[in-house]
Amino acid sequence: MSGDLRRHASPQKNSWGAGAGTSPEARLRQRLPTLDDIERRTRRRIPRFAFDFLEGGTGGDLNTKRNRQALDAVELVPRYGAPGPVHTEVELLGVQCAAPIGISPVGVDGIVWPGATKILAAAAAKARIPYMAGTLATATIEEVAGLAGPYAWFQLYGLPANDHSVTFDLIKRAGSAGVHVLAATLDAPVRSKRPRDLRNGLVVPFRPTLKTIFDVASSLPWLLALLKEGTPAFRNMEQYVDKPPTQAGTAGFVQSQIKGTFSWDTVKRMRDAWPGALVVKGVMHPADAEQAIAVGVDGILVSNHGGRQLDAAPAAIDVLPAIAGCVGTRATILFDSGIRSGLDVARAIALGAHGTLAGRAFLLGLGALGESGATYVAELLKEELETAMGQLGAPSVDMLSRLTRRHRDAFDFT
Ligand SMILES: Cc1cc2nc3c(=O)[nH]c(=O)nc-3n(C[C@H](O)[C@H](O)[C@H](O)COP(=O)(O)O)c2cc1C
Question: Keywords, A to Z (predicted)?
């Protein structure tokens, strides 16, 4: 390991070993040591419709489960003989990050935790990790950029009316706000069927039932956050609807105008209009990665939308090696869909990703702990990644990609 790496390396202690201590931080890590513990606590603390909205996939949640099972099945072989500190810092699309971990966009995140978008933006800056705020976030891209600074990324859904005039206005706004990375989501060409939301009446316009009201009344911390923050709204959209913007008016606009995919021609137009790094989100086939590279993108986010779009889709981790192999050094490979631990991050990097993101994990943190929960999840994932790297004998993120691994269900596209 180089001297330079040693100087920047994190101290090699973790919060689960002997002598972890009795500080509030240490006690929290004993009480909620994993994302599964965090999820259990969140389930008790937020209304049922909010929990189902976050956790649910499409159809029978098969793709969501497949993402998890496939990650669990990836085996990594440790190497010994060169112990030393590990170093999780990486550069992703020109941004120096504390770890190869970022926050994926979760549209209308304020349903899960009122005020979520701003909390996540601030937590990203604190943890020095990217936050890809959504078109459908509950704070504006200008607010996000103000809070997240260099870690603010922006996810774009298309608004094709009038030759994409609103789409390109959003791109301009993101640039003026100081965002460096723009991600165009490809993988939601149609509105998917999410039975949990239908059963819970979580549709536009929202129709609360007696059960919903009871649910909200018995979720006191969530209710207090709602009273503080107000009802979640599509803040990025408000300037495009009739004044004054109403909940119903903005929601109707979103329902009728937004499309979760783009033609390659439109991605090419974005390339021409956007001087920063351009990513396409939701790539699941090497041929689509090729197309994306042909129109000049800088990053490919391998993702199946966390299992929320197509129940028969493969696990995203199972297509990652083929896509990474096809792209080679021509673009940055990002991965999301199923990340629940630092070990999962290590698995994705070992299979070809340069960086990973997680959607549900960070929102679960907010549900479990309120405002401090996103920072807690960022710390937990980073600490777990450090432990995995130490155990695997991989002192740098780059070294993870050289590990021997077994991935029985990897897709072969040939
Ligand atoms: C409740 C929810 C809402 C989401 N909304 C969006 C969105 O507005 N735009 C988008 O590109 N992806 C959206 N996603 C997908 C995430 O960005 C990300 O791809 C996915 O959550 C990754 O899987 P994970 O939750 O297992 O980490 C959403 C995911 C969830 C769970």
Answer: Flavoprotein, FMN, Oxidoreductase
pLDDT value of position 8: 39
C-alpha 95/C-alpha 100 separation (Å) is 11
In a domain, 8, yes or no: no
Beta bridge partners of 406: 75
Q: Is 286 touching ligand 1 by the criterion CB < 6 Å?
A: no
Q: Please pick, among 180, 305, 354, 407, the residue that the annotation labels catalytic.
A: 305
Please name the residue whose Cα sits nearest to atom 11 of ligand 1: 185
Contact 173/141 with Cβ under 8 angstroms?
yes
The answer to whether the CB of 15 is under 6 A from ligand 1 is no
Query: Does the annotation mark 354 as catalytic?
Result: no
Ligand 1 center from residue 88 Cα (angstroms)? 24
24 Cα–ligand 1 center, Å: 31
| 295 domain residue, yes or no | yes
Percent with pLDDT over 90 in the chain? 88
Distance 107 CA to ligand 1 centre (A): 7
Residue 14 lies in a domain: no
Mean pLDDT of 236-248: 90
| CB of residue 185 inside a 6 A radius of ligand 1 | yes
User: What's the number of domains the chain is made of?
Assistant: 1
Quote the domain boundaries for residue 250: 22-406
Task: Give the residue, out of 58, 64, 101, 106, with the most ligand 1 atoms within 8 A of its beta carbon, to mutate for a pocket test.
Answer: 106
Residue that is written with structure tokens 């005039």 in the block? 165
Residue type, 167: T
Q: Which CATH number fits the domain that encloses residue 229?
A: 3.20.20.70
Query: 106 CB under 6 A from ligand 1?
Result: yes
State the Cα–Cα distance between residues 93 and 333, nearest whole angstrom.
Answer: 10
Q: Give how far Cα 87 sits from Cα of 138, 327, 377, 397, Å.
A: 34, 26, 19, 7
Average pLDDT, the chain: 94
Amino acid 284: pLDDT? 98
Rounded to the nearest 10 degrees, what angle do helices 286-294 and 264-273 cross at? 40
Cβ-contact 336, 104 below 8 angstroms: yes
Q: What is the mean pLDDT of residues 187-209?
A: 88
User: How many angstroms does the Cα of residue 201 sit away from the middle of ligand 1?
Assistant: 20
Percent of the chain with pLDDT over 70: 95
